[in-house]
Write a structure and sequence with these properties.
about 375 residues; alpha/beta; TIM Barrel; binds iron/sulfur cluster
Amino acid sequence: MQSSLSTRLRAFAAGAAQPTVEELAAALDSTFPLAELLTIGEEPRVQFFGKKIQVHILDNIRNGHCPEDCGYCAQRKSASAEEIPAYSLKQEEEILKEAEQAYKSGAYRFCLVTSGTGPTEKQTIKYAELVKKIKERFPMRLCLSAGIIKDPKFAEMLAEAGLDRYNHNLNTSAEHTPAIVRTHNFDDRVRTIEHMKRAGVSVCSGVIVGMGESNQDIASVAVRLKELDVPSIPVNFFLPVPGHEIDNLRELSSEFCLRTLAIFRIANPTAEIRVAAGREIYLKDKQAEALRVANSLFVSGYLNVKGSDAAETYSMIRANGYQVDAETSDMDPELCKSGSIDQNAMIDSIEMKTRADLRAFAE
Ligand code: SF4
């Protein structure tokens, strides 16, 4: 049984067969050897990305007061008032300064993130202007995460402005989605991905693991992303932010996190697999092992939670024989320390970003 699953996983990793939910879920089970799973996942990682690591930096350009009710998110209306600093869209100058900082810090990709259901036409015009200005000044890849795109015309406007990528996570399976959000559904998310793809914008879409889902739910996201041919997949491990509303939190061991990353790589061999939120807390000293299958990560934290800073992360990358795949050769890691915290302290408590972390250039 184990050897036939192993043969099938190798075929998925080689792009020679389509993965099924059942098979990927079986690989998540502890009865399948972790060492073998990582070896199978490492092959396409090395084939398509060598030893390179793509570094992403997030910028919350609007924070909090979201009318949606995603139970995992500190930005939803019912949680944001007391849990996080809420603000409307940052001024253009502030965003441009942050883009410059990210560029000089060696970001492969700069990700603009806004809270909210999805953009109106007026907001889309504003985002398109921002995209144009950032792209003119800083030759790094640009990603926008602005929620559900209802009108295909909005996708075209962003494409025309030169947006490289749009992020919209599936988060969990279609079946488990109603357990974590009631104000929109799984199909809204898939439609957004399809609109962006049709407009010619590359899509980033991933998963959040640890929200009471089953192994089948996780495997089902990996299969759905393969069907949607998504080239960039962030794998997040749920950080129970203050005020979250997720029932049945799932215990996440570092071994399970490694298994999860491996099955996303095996199902999506050519995709950029990003070890995203929860890297420091759950993987702990196994972060380098995660890079055997993942080829991308965030530095300086996540949406509203702090993470290890650029200098610390780059040193972990290099000490393990990997190279930072940066857009700029004159990067200055010292510029990117605003999210820095002691990693050991973080394991015991999730530390939220402060207003100063989120608005380093605010007047
Ligand atoms: S995940 Fe996005 S849509 Fe959901 S509550 Fe948070 S900011 Fe709003």
